[in-house]
């Protein structure tokens, strides 16, 4: 059995369903938001009984347990440390005690953003609390000297408008018109949720261990993404103003170039990135009654 911790969240829910569609035996967990066919699990509970209750668990996929982004982490810092660090470390202890294989979904935020094109073995130097928590969990996993899988990625997206991921939310903002500031120095490598789930399925089949970087689109700035969306859909009434991430008031520091090098993953899987316009075409075909050129 595969346990997906945090399946009430967007990423966890998608992974759980994708694995079930692949005829895997999967159990999801929830905490605040109850979901059908899942089990309650509180990471702040010091007694973890899941493995006794479900002894067939062989793999645990650890998604963000709570406060799953930079802003919510710093705004609820103590809660974030109690669950996403201390709670996850207790879960890792139990995994290795029960000889369960842990898969940890980490982040590009473990890097400082000073250089970009980060390889798996590059030195980590997170500059915000979200990245620091992710980095410390990675270090803890590695300290046992036992098999694990760490998957690092940046912003996750899909092409469904109702999900409000980075691509579709930006599309809606641009469609609304007016003026908007977009950072030319905020650079990242977005990951499609399908590519994340497919890599997890492949890793389970092939027995991948260690650290892998994932991305679906080559590095792009938020400004470039906005311009491409505006021009593709012909939203000419929207003025997109270039600026710096430093010009935007945010609750915690933002790294600038967090682009990930995915050569290792491509060598293993023969994966090829797509261009942004491929995904915009998918959106256009789905909702052209609402958004027309």
Structural notes for this entry:
- The chain has helices at 10-21, 50-53, 70-75, 77-97, 129-143, 166-175, 193-206, 222-233, 263-269, 276-287; strands at 2-5, 26-30, 38-40, 59-62, 101-105, 149-152, 156-157, 178-183, 187-188, 191-192, 210-213, 220-221, 238-243.
- It contains 10 helices and 13 strands.
- The mean pLDDT is 91.
- The radius of gyration is 19 Å and the shape is globular.
- The chain has 2 domains: 2-156 and 190-213, NAD(P)-binding Rossmann-like Domain (Rossmann fold); 159-188 and 220-259 and 275-287, UDP-galactose 4-epimerase, domain 1.
- The longest helix has 21 residues, at 77-97.
- Helix 1 crosses helix 7 (193-206), helix 4 (77-97) packs parallel to helix 5 and helix 6 packs across helix 8.
- It is α/β, with parallel strands linked by helices.
- Helix content is 39%, strand content 17%.
- A 7-stranded parallel beta sheet has the order 3-2-1-4-5-6-11, sandwiched between helices. The chain has a two-stranded parallel ribbon with strand order 7-10.
- Strand 5, helix 5 and strand 6 form a beta-alpha-beta unit.
Outline the fold blueprint.
Blueprint: E1 2-5, H1 10-21, E2 26-30, E3 38-40, H2 50-53, E4 59-62, H3 70-75, H4 77-97, E5 101-105, H5 129-143, E6 149-152, E7 156-157, H6 166-175, E8 178-183, E9 187-188, E10 191-192, H7 193-206, E11 210-213, E12 220-221, H8 222-233, E13 238-243, H9 263-269, H10 276-287
Parallel strand pairs: 1-2, 1-4, 2-3, 4-5, 5-6, 6-11, 7-10, 8-13
Antiparallel strand pairs: 9-12
Helix pairs in contact: 1-7, 4-5, 6-8, 8-10
